[in-house]
Design goal:
single chain; 461 residues; alpha+beta; Vanadium-containing Chloroperoxidase, domain 1; Porin; 2 domains; 8-stranded antiparallel β-barrel; 39% helix
């Protein structure tokens, strides 16, 4: 009997332990479920990490740039008329289609992209339909006259919209395969937009707005088709996801404003007449480690010069007149060390110091007065010719990465050029030996210092 009692007690104890374990297990499971549920409901996606925000950043920047340059479009066109007045090359009529042709070429060659051929075509056609509706509805509502005066359908640029729709199509299909595809696509689209401006067919705001429409049209086209297929792509599981670049090597397109310092053109007495200019160009760097690399840039900067107003009184009243000096332009290239520091996977700081060559464009000086009997009331009195010079620059930039392969960069550079400018006055001065000697041998040595502030579209490779 004693053994039976002991055995019964052991069994009862085992049953109690099993029950307690079951209760504890159930409670633990419920607690974990509640904790997990609470975590899901409490965690919110930060605003700038929301999918729709990331997709709309680039178009928003382009639309903002179009609005910001609208009031300066005439001045920006004068830069084209100043340096390339006879430019005529119709490459932009064909280059706009290059990224889309690349997509179909890669697919027919068997290179796997985001989607199979049928779905990619459906997404592309949808994107084109959205782009066409947006461009044409705005064109024939705004009725902006083209720079060449041919038609009133300048804004926005259909060529730029088509080029950036096609570039985004290439980026969507093959950007995650290799960032080089995105770089090539958006590079060709940028050249198309530049061609529209150089061919005098569109204003700068037309091109910027067209680019924004092209990008957002492709995003919307893929959004709707992805909803129909209920996934993000046919071949995503087959493609290796880009986890990040070991080294921050990059290629970028940049555009910004240029600000002369207080001694800009001081020796030519034009320091107080300089105006805010602009800068555009390409920049890139190859990094040998996560911190250090070597890079450079090719850029063009132009500074408008405000007319100098004077009153000529030499015993007779000649009235007010203006001295007009054509804008001063610099085409420069430099190379030097680059340093990079990543604050996170989204934010990156880059520092640089470069040295190189700067070629400065020649220009003319006019006197303008209502008393001058010419169609424009202007008379050329001189021309100037700066000598090529050494340029050094230093700068800092901060990049926000939309993804590991693409980002938008805020940059600021300081540039210095020491140039000698020779002034040649009107040939009529040669009749006067004294004036010819004094004026036609006029040299000024200028220390041309200026800051640039702008944005870069940065592609990493």
């Amino acid at each position: 009997m004693k053994k039976i009692v002991i055995a019964t007690g052991i069994l009862l104890n085992l049953c109690c332990y099993h029950a307690q374990d079951t209760i504890q297990s159930r409670n633990l499971q419920k607690d974990l479920a509640l904790i997990s549920s609470d975590s899901i409901t409490q965690v919110k996606t930060p605003f700038f990490k929301k999918e729709w925000v990331k997709k709309s950043v680039a178009p928003a920047i382009l639309f903002t740039a179009a609005a910001a340059t609208w009031g300066e479009k005439e001045n920006l066109r004068e830069v084209r008329n100043r340096y390339l007045p006879t430019f005529k090359a119709k490459y932009d009529d064909y280059l706009q289609y290059a990224p889309a042709a690349a997509v179909y070429g890669l697919k027919l060659a068997g290179v796997k992209g985001r989607n199979n051929l049928g779905r990619a075509t459906l997404s592309y056609v949808t994107s084109l339909a959205i782009m066409g509706i947006l461009v044409n509805s705005i064109k024939y509502t705004a009725k902006v006259e083209r720079p060449d005066g041919s038609k009133n359908n300048s804004f926005p640029s259909g060529h730029a919209a088509m080029a950036f729709t096609n570039a985004s199509f290439l980026h969507k299909e093959y950007g995650m395969v290799n960032p080089a595809y995105s770089i090539a696509g958006y590079g060709s689209a940028a050249l198309t937009g530049l061609g529209r401006n150089l061919n005098n067919r569109h204003w700068i705001p037309d091109v910027l707005a067209g680019a924004g429409i092209g990008i957002i049209s492709t995003e919307l086209g893929y959004f709707f088709i992805d909803k129909i297929y209920k996934n993000k792509g046919d071949n995503l599981s087959m493609l290796s996801r880009i986890q990040g670049n070991d080294y921050p090597s990059f290629l970028a397109i940049k555009l910004g404003s240029a600000f002369g310092t207080t001694n800009f053109l001081k020796e030519s007495d034009l320091d107080n007449n300089k105006q805010i200019g602009f800068e555009g160009g390409l920049e890139g760097a190859y990094f040998f480690s996560k911190k250090w690399g070597i890079g450079g840039d090719i850029s063009f900067s132009s500074f408008p010069i405000k007319p100098l107003r004077e009153t000529l009184d030499d015993g007779k009243d000649f009235g007010d007149y203006s001295i007009i000096t054509q804008s001063l332009g610099f085409l420069g290239a430099g190379i030097g060390p680059y340093y990079s520091h990543e604050f996170s996977d989204k934010w990156q700081l880059t520092l640089k110091a470069t040295g190189g060559y700067s070629a400065t464009s020649s220009g003319k000086v006019f006197i303008k007065s209502n008393d001058i009997d010419t169609p424009t009331h202007e008379l050329q009195i001189a021309r100037y010719k700066p000598k090529p010079a050494f340029r050094w620059s230093t700068g800092a930039s901060l990049t926000y990465k939309f993804n590991p392969g693409l980002g938008i960069t805020l940059y600021s550079d300081y540039n210095q050029i020491k140039s000698t400018i020779r002034y040649y006055f009107s040939d009529t001065l040669e009749d006067s030996e004294q004036l010819n000697q004094e004026l036609n041998n006029l040299l000024t040595k200028e220390r041309i210092n200026y800051f640039t502030l702008g944005l870069r579209l940065t592609a990493y490779f």
